[in-house]
Write a structure and sequence with these properties.
Number of domains: 1
CATH topology: Aminopeptidase
Number of strands: 7
CATH class: Alpha Beta
Amino acid sequence: MGEDADDETLFWIEPTERGIIPLDGFHLSKSLKRLILKENFEIRINSDFEGVIDGCSSMKAGRISTWINKPIRKLYGELFEQGHCHTVETWKDAKLVGGLYGVHIGGAFFGESMFSFERDASKIALANLVARLNHCGFSLLDTQFLTDHLRTLGGIEIDQRAYRKKLIDALAKPADFLQEPMELPAHKVLQLVSQTSNTGCSTP
């Protein structure tokens, strides 16, 4: 992480309590379910990395400051070009209005940041991320820290020992974030985020 946008240095953090969203424990509220079914947002994968990282660091997204500095942008941009970093984006009226980005290694996805310029846009992106991870055989969604917002969506904290075990198991799993189909229909998203167990790679 960076201290702020103008800081040129990076530092590492290993929380004693790690935030994760269990892929069989995403909280799908009735209102979010209705919103997904309305399909008011278009979901795109990896179409605008720069737009997403701009959104995640924008003061417009309700932040006072950001830890996304120039080295972060450069390094994650390189990871994106190499196919290790991915974005899930919500678009409306041809405008990017929300989304998230993160890195995947094996069957683990490390969520880095998300943003929303329109009500519920980031929730829609996160629901679609969980659906994609279940669809493609992932077993760990790491959020690093647990915010009140993530807690409402099913996020929990686990200690380092439990986290490391989950991480070791996840890293050993083959998982392809870009497995077809890239555009999951609304009913499939609901099915994938509502499932009670993660049984591996789902079929369309």
